[in-house]
Specification:
The structure holds two protein chains of two kinds. Chain A is of the alpha+beta class. Chain A has helices spanning 41-45, 52-60, 67-74, 78-90, 109-124; strands spanning 7-9, 12-14, 36-39, 65-66, 94-97. In chain A, the strands form two sheets. In chain A, strands 4-3-5 form a three-stranded antiparallel beta sheet. A two-stranded antiparallel ribbon of chain A has the order 1-2. In chain A, helix 3 (67-74) packs across helix 4 (78-90). Helix content of chain B is 31%, strand content 27%. Chain B has six helices and seven strands, in the order E-H-E-H-E-E-H-E-H-E-H-E-H. In chain B, helix 1 (26-33) crosses helix 6. Chain B is globular, with a radius of gyration of 18 Å. At the A-B interface, strand 3, helix 1, helix 3 and helix 5 of A face strand 1, strand 2, strand 3, strand 4 and helix 6 of B.
């Protein structure tokens, strides 16, 4: 018997994709692992309408939190967080800030150079 | 309302990948500078998402769990730098593409006692044209080999910087991360000048 991955959150034992209705996020544009999720004022107002992981995502995103951090904090697979976060975004409950695109994919060399210089300055100032 | 939701405060996420063979010190490297304890996150990979088609005896699809370590560093200028350690085992190399997508660059950590353990990472970043810095992890503060020796053993050209660091030491890790960004900057500027 193959042991299926199970997720233990708040004493529940459910299979990971039960909470997404079986959706794995395939077919959606992939949200970056480091994309930042932030709750909106509307999301705060409607937070009682959400349950379980969706409610947790809203609670954790009161300060901007990356998709991968949410997955680690909620102890659910990244795919589940992607699907739930995309749902929340559709409802206007959260915003998702994708990372700046990497060099070569855009013609915006000056913008990318400026970003890199800021990152370097930030690292040196640590 | 008493609570103040953040909404977007204008933070920009950036990322650097930390690669290398199994047990070379990636988690130590990330932990030396991360403001959070390095966390472990799991991605469950299904055949649907990655084209792996394993079918169990009862006809259900199998799922594979791959764990990734990551750390976070808040920088000035409203930036948040995420460090991602690549899964060490060879069978998870297909995850590397997702980790490398959008990365500023990569650190390839090398243990000179097992230099071949990092070949896969170097091949991957060279093919993908992700800028990378080779960081020789000098356990116990010893430099067992010189830069030329390492470059020769790795069969890499002069363009990839080779630096030495102790993955346990914060200032060393800080310097290596700076080296990565500088290397990427050099490449972006020289490519812009050439075009």
């Amino acid at each position: 018997m193959t042991s299926m991955p199970e997720t233990h959150v708040g004493g529940r034992i459910v299979r990971p994709y039960t909470m997404t209705g079986g959706r794995t996020g395939v077919g959606h544009p992939m949200i970056a692992l480091e994309a930042l999720v932030a709750v909106t004022p509307a999301g705060m107002r409607m937070r009682h309408r959400f349950r379980w992981e969706a409610a947790e995502i809203i609670a954790r995103s009161r300060s901007e939190t990356a998709i991968i951090e949410l997955a680690a904090l909620l102890e659910v697979p990244i795919g589940v967080v992607r699907v739930l976060t995309a749902d929340l975004q559709e409802k206007g409950a959260v915003t998702i800030t994708e990372p700046a695109s990497e060099s070569g994919s855009e013609a915006d060399t000056p913008g990318y150079t400026e970003l890199l210089q800021k990152v370097l300055d930030g690292i040196n100032a640590l | 309302m008493a609570s103040t939701p953040s909404e977007s405060t204008g933070l920009t996420p950036v990322k650097i990948v930390v690669a290398g063979g199994f047990g070379v010190g990636k988690t130590t490297f990330v932990g030396a500078i991360s403001e959070i304890e390095p966390l472990r996150s799991e991605a469950i990979i299904t055949d649907a998402s990655y084209g792996i088609d394993e079918v169990t005896a009862d006809g259900t699809k199998t799922e594979t769990t791959v764990a990734m370590d990551f750390g976070r560093i808040s920088l000035k200028h409203q930036l948040v730098l995420y460090l991602f350690g690549t899964p060490g085992q060879d069978r998870f190399h297909f995850m590397w593409d997702e980790l490398a997508r959008g990365a500023i660059g990569a650190v390839v950590l090398v243990d000179t006692r097992r230099i071949e353990a990092c070949f896969a990472a170097i091949d991957f970043f060279e093919k993908r044209r992700t800028p990378f810095v080779v960081a020789v992890n000098t356990f116990h503060g010893q430099r067992l080999h010189g830069e030329d020796e390492v470059r020769n053993a790795l069969q890499i050209g002069p363009e990839a910087p080779i630096v030495f660091c102790d993955a346990r030491v914060r200032v060393d890790v800080q310097r290596v991360l700076g080296n990565v960004v500088e290397h990427t900057l050099d490449r972006v500027m020289s490519e812009a000048a050439a075009s």
